[in-house]
Amino acid sequence: MKNILVTGGAGFIGSNFVRYLLKNYEDIRIVNLDLLTYAGNLDNLSDVSNDSRYSFCRGDIHDRALVEQLFDRYGFDTVVNFAAESHVDRSIANPDIFLTTNVMGTLTLLDVAKRHWKLDPDDKYSREFKEGVKYLQVSTDEVYGALGETGMFTETTPLAPNSPYSASKASADLVVRSYDKTYGMPVNITRCSNNYGPYQFPEKLIPLMINNCLNGKPLPVYGDGMQIRDWLYVEDHCAAIAAVLEKGRLGEVYNIGGNNERANIEIVKLIIHDTGRSEELIEHVRDRPGHDRRYAIDNTKITSELGWSPKYTFQTGMASTVEWYLHHRDWMDKIVSGEYMKYYEKMYANNALS
Ligand code: NAD
Ligand code: DAU
After folding, report:
1. Which contacts qualify for 127-132: CB closer than 8 Å, 24 or more apart?
2. Residue 80 — very low, low, confident or very high, per pLDDT cuts 50/70/90?
3. Which ligand sits nearest to residue 291's alpha carbon?
């Protein structure tokens, strides 16, 4: 049986991952450690919360005493770290918490796992770990920085993060790498492109545009809208992480992406079309400072080594995403009726093009 600590499991990708594991693996126990920040939402897991293989603990990955207690109690053999501050725009306004959670929180998890998994934790020269343990860091393609019109990120592309968010994720990746190189700890890092699908917090492009379309609100497109992202349906990301957990070579980085580059404006127009709205809702606003122009993932390593490939095309993924939001308006309304509106008003105030 796999005994997994999933952190950040009440967020967008983490909750989809918990659901994916429960659906696809019988012999499993999952503890979800999540602080329930503005982005964490237990409604994301309401359909699985009574599953006897699953338990939830509210807490901070940076709280060493708590993480120690959880390891003592459950004896995890696997850690999958999703917990993070994840929104680039918020990192531009308030970088501190990004460094605290994304870097120091990762260090805490790694260090507690090392102490529990190392065969002789007091011998600084020993590199021996228990059989079958693994720490997986869920990272992002943003650590590589931005691309011009051509080229793709491979696992050996130098790290060149441009936002406080991506700088914190790149820093965390380097700490994870150091635990492999220095201590011989069994780790993997995955770097995925932009995800979309059910349960994504509506600060991110796709759910924000869907919500605004459904409510007839203006659609704030940053700059010319020609920035390119490489979109992947969230369930495909979950399957890729599961493949890396099972078969990933220790110490390796795996890029994850679906070869699906789209300009933002193309996505916004598709959502307008699918929700029956008019392009007159589009409002070009001032660009994000330091906005990365283009991301694209070369996924050759994970497809050839681990046999993973995406199951969803952009058409099937977007159709099921828009449908999901249309059928879960109560989920969205609950979020946007709270603190969200204050965030939205502050974030999108004074950004009209001069
Ligand atoms: P999210 O913001 O939806 O969820 C983050 C979760 O982490 C929330 O449930 C939040 O409550 C929790 N959390 C935050 N700080 C915490 C702390 N100190 N202790 C415990 N829990 C805490 O994020 P997401 O989009 O699901 O992203 C998950 C991970 O995947 C992140 O590490 C992100 O960098 C990475 N990632 C995201 C994407 C994407 O497109 N969304 C792509 C590639 C990688
Ligand atoms: O590439 C992976 C990353 O993708 C993850 O590591 C991040 O956690 C995730 O948030 C995402 O980052 P982006 O900055 O690419 O995602 P976001 O949804 O914020 O924006 C997508 C694009 O859309 C980006 O070019 C900015 C643009 N945008 C976004 C918003 C919210 C707009 O034009 N208008 C908007 O209102």
Report:
1. 127/183, 127/184, 128/184, 129/184, 129/185, 129/186, 130/77, 132/77
2. very high
3. 2
